[in-house]
Amino acid sequence: MGFCGCEMKDIPRPAADTPVEPTRLLVLSEGLYNMNNSTLALVDLSSNSTDYDIFKTLNHRGLGDTANDLKRYGAKIYIPVNISSTLEIIDATSLISIKRLTITTPEGTARQPRRIAFHDGFAYLTCFDGTLIEIDTASLEITRTVTLGRNPDHLAICNGKAYVSNSGGLDYPYYDATVSVVDLATMTELRRVPVGQNPGCIEASERGDIYVVSRGDYDQNDYTLHKIDTDIDTVVRSFPDIHPLNFCIVGNTLYMYNYNFSDASHWVKSFDCITDRITNDNLLPENLTLTTPFSITVDPSSGEIFLTDANSFILFGHLICINPDGTLRYIISEIGLNPNGIIIL
Amino acid sequence: MFAKVHILLLSLMLTIAFSATANDYVVKHTTEEPADTMVRELDEVVVTAESKTNTAVSTAPLQLKTKIDIEALPAIQVSDVLKHLSGVSIKDYGGIGGLKTVSVRSLGAAHTAVSYDGITVADGQNGQIDISRFSLDNVNSIELSNGQGDNIFVPARSMASAAVLSIQTTKPTFNKNQKVTGSVSFRGGSFTTLNPAFFLAARLSKKLSLSVNADYLFSKGDYPYTLHYGSADNDSVSNERRQNSNVSNLHTEATLFGSDSVNEGYFKAYYYRSNRGLPGATIFYNTSSFSSQRLNEQVAFAQGHYNRHLTDIWDFQLNAKYNFSYTHYKDPAALNSAGIEENHYRQNEYYLNAAAQVRPLQNLAVSLSTDGIVTTMNADIVNFARPVRTQWLSALSLKYVRSWVTLVGTAIFNAVWDYTIADNTTTNRFKCSPYISASFKPFATLKEDLDLRFRIFYKNIYRLPTFNDLYYGRVGNRNLKPEDTNQINIGMTYALTNKSFLSSLLVSADIYHNDVTDKIVAYPTKNVFTWTMLNYGHVSICGFDLNADIDLELYKGYHIEFATTYTYNRAVNITDRKSADYKHQIPYTPRISGSANAILRTPYVNIAYSLIWSGIRYAVNQNYAENRLPAYCDHSLTVSHDFRLPNSQSLALALEVINLTNTNYEVIRYFPMPGRQFRGSLRYNF
Questions:
Q1: Which residue in B147, B213, B339, B378 could disulfide with B60, CB within 3.0 to 4.6 Å?
Q2: For residue B395, what are the β-bridge partners?
């Protein structure tokens, strides 16, 4: 065609400007629904190089559609991919896929896995079809399954029990409002703890308490943090004045952020799980405005806070590294579409 | 209370329309064009090329495919034909049942009005018409106008959009003494595609005739495709078969035609039902993920058109329509607590138009056309707003025609009242939109047979936010503003007829600049039925359309026809200078695309080759390699022959190979298109 000179050319992604340090990060981006474009990026700050999809580079295939979680356990990394309904298990050193587990019912219906946690050599995987699945991390076979509430999402493990947020998100606007407590020895549900509408992020503190946020219908005043005593499996305290959307716990420190979907305002704070008080109410560096904070991770050794920013969901999002004192360390822009998890290698 | 308001409005509108035609004279005359000069020009042209030449005269780009053109294309649906027009992009989700919408010059599908026998087909819910619904069995011609057509004596609604796709069905013609005419046809092809149809027309009296037609289209649609797990050469692939892509469509229609020296009109009843799978995107490692979602649709409408030639200078017409549509969406594998997701949508539309045209001078026509439209929608969605939209649309137009110039101007007044029954809110909108166009034939006096014309048009029009845009669950946004478009087009046409072996030549070239502000973009990201609203803000579009049609007569009865289109379209997002997608091409919009057709017509056999091609596109906003969809070409071949039988009967046989090279491509990312397909058809005309 004589007119091919008019054809478009790909625009290159902007190069990252980062400090040189011996840090290697894996950044998971869930991509867009039905676009099969979840990616796993490898960032190597020592050589200032980024492979935006190391998984595809090494394994010659994409991760799939809507990868929701990225966790390391032992020498393996586990990635539940929700719409593809797979659990991708890769070697933590070579990043080469060891196994891709298909997460379906015996009849072949997709269970849509969401998040994963580990205990005593076993992985526990929440699935949107209302189940928690146990996987032997040595044989990588599914061992047991238990049925819980509606659309289980996040989970945390403490005291030999799994605490699973039943979001009920697919019944919008009639969300679930409970946390299922599962005895991992018998793989049975012990009880459902009422917490608040649409429970999401759930994590255990070192002291042995479970913190969970209920998000209501994503009105920021609905976001409420609750604390569950794992001896009596009951909410012992709710914090109606703190409105985190999402958080993570390192030791006994809870790092949380808020995002108001109606006016895009947001903050990042830290909270002490012993005193149950805010310890730092502004961890967001000055002059830094996020578009849509999407995940928070803290490096236990350095105390660095990693935030991901989903941007406008359809534009590539960013990774922001913040020093423990709340000053900006670096930004890696346009790391992937909807970045939602990181691992510090 | 509501109904009263509607009736009041409609009667008010009628009063205005009738008062415009208060002087009642009855004189016979039937030419539609206002000036004699125009009629003379049409007479110069040979009969076979008459309609094609009209497109050269048009002040705004007009592309026409007649029945003869359509028969030479590898087409089973209207959408297949549109792929051969310039400036058009069809969002095709693959397969016969896959959603197909038509966007003209990157303005978005909701800016394309679709008219069926002169009356607009509307969808208040989506704003865009799924043209996979229209079969080709009874279609006589397909016309696409940018801006608006030159005929100002039409319903206001067909002037109130940025582009108009007009589908004209076949009006029966009878030979002398013939009382009944018709055809029976059967088409079959790959992936268990079956398409029987019939058309029957009877002459009831000198003034009345009746036609009835029906067609049924079934396709299993289980075509094979290759799923690529990456774009690099050594990335994995798997061979898959499309699941849940089956479709079963029934369309039936009956029309009563009437005409005499001063009156002309028709009344049509139409019914369509479709039951199809929604195959969804093909998901890595979970290709059966959308293997059970279903969509059932029913559309029934009755429409009527009445035209009366009142006097030598006055014409009057009335158009009316009632449309009911029903959609049932079902996902029996949903992971909600019911284990099923199911919605029923019902829409009603009441439509009435009255128009009058007067020709105060020989070369001048003025028309006033006014439409009243009431659209209601209900759905079993939690907290559904139950909207009622009442619209009063009027167009005042002027047309001036001389042998060397045509001028058209229209002002459209639009008043809209949106009311929601569920929460009792009202939103009012009023707007006036101008259109102006002109065509010049500057060298007519120098050289009479030099048909070189220049044309220009400007149109400002907006589209209303649809019910989905405004009220659909979590994605709907009541604060949406209407989407405003400005179009400027400058072009030229050159036509030549009967120069030795050149039967006809028609070349048109147009450059255009479009501007879309407050753009609302809806495209399905969840599945083809659930839409996500994106507000792009501001899109700037610069483009170039080229069409060339050549008909060569090699020998008596032996013709070769070439038709090509080329489209250059730079449609970039200029909403926010600071945004990472500033000046990036908007999603699913190729920068370059085109088509080519070559048809050899002989007394024994007709052979047609056709090609459609598209450059790269991006599936998401940013023009990064990761978002890129590769370019493609789709080649097809059609061989056909008409056997003449006694008593003006005939038998038409056609064989088609579509996607000859078995190219695996996608128009929408992860919605694979079928590979090589074969189709055969047999039609008996009597």
A1: B147
A2: B369, B412
pLDDT digit string, tens, across residues B476-532: 777 778 889 999 999 999 998 888 888 899 999 999 999 999 887 654 433 333 445
Give the tens place of pLDDT for each residue, B229-250. 999 999 999 999 999 999 999 9
Cα B218 to Cα B380: distance, rounded to the nearest angstrom: 29
Tokens representing residue B522 in the block: 């809806």
Provide the residue count of chain B: 686
What are B261-287's pLDDT values in tens digits? 999 999 999 999 999 999 989 999 999
Residues with Cβ < 8 Å from B527, sequence gap 6 or more?
Answer: A34, B278, B280, B281, B290, B293
| CB neighbour class for A185 (10 Å; exposed up to 12, middle 13-18, buried from 19) | exposed
CA B618 – CA A32 distance, rounded (Å): 14
Q: What is the identity of the amino acid at A306?
A: F
Q: Residue holding tokens 């279903």?
A: B294
Number of neighbouring beta carbons within 10 Å of residue B588: 19
Which residues in A lie closer than 8 A to residue B474 (C-beta atoms)? Answer: 172
Closest by alpha carbon to A148, among A171, A174, A125?
A: A125
What is the per-residue pLDDT across B413-423, written as a single tens digit (0 to 9) for each? 999 999 999 88
Mean of per-residue pLDDT scores for chain A = 94
| Cβ–Cβ < 8 Å for A60, B229 | yes
Inter-chain touch B613–A1, beta carbons under 8 Å: yes
From B474, B592, B620, residue closest to A3, measured CB to CB:
B592
**Helix, strand, or coil here: B223?**
coil
Instruction: Tell me the three state secondary structure of residue B410.
Output: strand
Contact B337 A314 (CB under 8 A): no
The closest alpha carbon to A124, from A158, A75, A171, belongs to A158
Helix (H) or strand (E) holding B642: strand B632-645
Residue B630 scores a pLDDT above 70: yes
* Separation CA B129–CA B119 (nearest Å): 14
The distance of A169 to chain B (nearest Cα, Å) reads: 8
Distance from CA of B519 to the nearest CA of A (A): 16
Pairing of strands B112-116, B163-169: parallel
A103 phi and psi, to 5 degrees? Answer: -100, 90
Say which range, A159-173, B208-222, B503-517, B521-535, has the weakest mean pLDDT: B521-535
- Which pLDDT does position A81 carry in this prediction? 98
ipTM exceeding the 0.90 mark: yes
The token pair that represents A88 in the structure block: 């991708």
SS3 A238: strand
A321: tokens are 């590294």
Terminal C-alpha separation, chain A: 49
Integer Cα distance of B193 and B139 in angstroms: 20
